[in-house]
Amino acid sequence: MSATTLVLLLVFVGVLTFLYRYAMIGVFASRSLPGWLHALCRHIAPASFAALTASALFVSAGEVQFAFDTPRPWAALVAVTVAWRTRNVLATIGAGMAALYLLKRLF
Amino acid sequence: MAGPGMSAGGEFLAGCRDEAPLLLGVAPFGMIYGIAALSAGVPAWLAQLASAVVFAGAAQLVIVQMLAAGAGALPIALTSGLLNLRHVLYSASMAEYVRHLPRRWRLLLAYLLTDEAYAVAVLRYQRRDHSAPPAPAPDLRHWYFLGAGFTLWAGWQLSTAAGLLFGATIPSEWELDFAVPLTFIALLTLLLRERAGQAAALVAGLGALAFAALPYKLGLVAAILLGLLAGVWTVRRLERAR
Predict the structure, then answer these.
(1) pTM value?
(2) Longest dimension (CA), chain B
(3) Most CB atoms closer than 10 Å: which of A30, A31, A63, B232?
(4) How far off is chain B from A106, nearest CA to CA, in Å?
């Protein structure tokens, strides 16, 4: 992606995000939101994070690769376990990175 | 703590003080974002600018992760546009408290309306002050909102800068870009309390693999939309079963 495209992209996302934030405060102050929007917003974050995680771990150059002979999937598994047990974000990131460094010595 | 009859400056400082503890949780994300932006090839000045213009942590991490994976501008815009949609809900929730304010105040507070500022400011508005009778004093709670929002803004800019400085000095063998998917794993686990969210995540995750071959990473957008459908469908089914 060219630098110009990237600048335009970031400005677009920034303006859009501002419009979201301003929409009800500044423009439609009196209207209430439909229920389906609340329902939809609940699922957007889990769906996005799951898709991105799966893609980061198992997609390489447009191809699905279960590279279990490399450290990252296993380090991610450690992170999932720690996340499940502790529900602590920093502990999860720390354990995942520590597992990555440890496994890189083994592989 | 903010109390009744506080001055504008007092409200502002109370907002700053109540927001400050949240910076402990936010700063690592800012640093991870800065580091990952550099390793995705984003120039430092642009990464810092994005923290001011976009000013939404989860979306910025998603943008950087997708850039690193070679995604095109359209799927990145669609994904971050969806992910930030929740801010409309915060905006609606805040509307009744700030709609009497002049436009310049509403513009400023809208810009500062992040997850973390919302969480702190909405509590201030919902708190009932029993300690004093409702005096005819002017409502100065927008100063509290401003203090909370400004504190988070400053923390986000500074932690981004720290990540950019740190990221420029560490070798890529440290693989700190891996911290971004780890962050997604951590946040995902917190979000998976209910059935429908689990269904949405499962379908979106599998979809990301099924559509991996689509160009510009458009498969991610398709996977997320399919996940949303699965979430909505699960809610419907659970309601019918009840």
Answers:
(1) 0.90
(2) 65
(3) B232
(4) 15
Chain B partners within 8 Å of A8 (Cβ): 73
The domain in which residue A21 lies consists of 1-31
Query: Is residue A89 domain-resident?
Result: no
Count of Cβ atoms closer than 10 Å to residue B68 Cβ: 17
Q: Which residues lie across from A61 on neighbouring strands? A: none
Task: Kindly determine whether residue A89 and residue B186, on different chains, have CB atoms separated by under 8 Å.
Answer: yes
**How far apart are the CA of B7 and the nearest CA of chain A, in angstroms?**
24
What pLDDT is stored for residue B30 in this prediction?
96
Which structure tokens are listed for A93?
């990131």
Facing residue for A80 by CB, picked from B81, B86, B185: B185
Q: What is the 3-state secondary structure (H, E, C) of A69-105?
A: CCHHHHHHHHHHHHHHHHCCHHHHHHHHHHHHHHHHH
Quick check: is A72 in a domain? Answer: no
Residue A8 lies in a domain: yes
Tell whether A98 is covered by a domain: no
Is the confidence metric ipTM above 0.85 for this complex? yes
Q: Give the SS3 label for residue B41.
A: coil
Structural domain total, chain A? 1
CA–CA distances in Å: residue A32 to residues A16, B85, B92, B113, B227: 20, 15, 7, 18, 26
The predicted-structure confidence for B147-169, as pLDDT tens digits, reads as follows 999 999 999 999 999 999 999 99
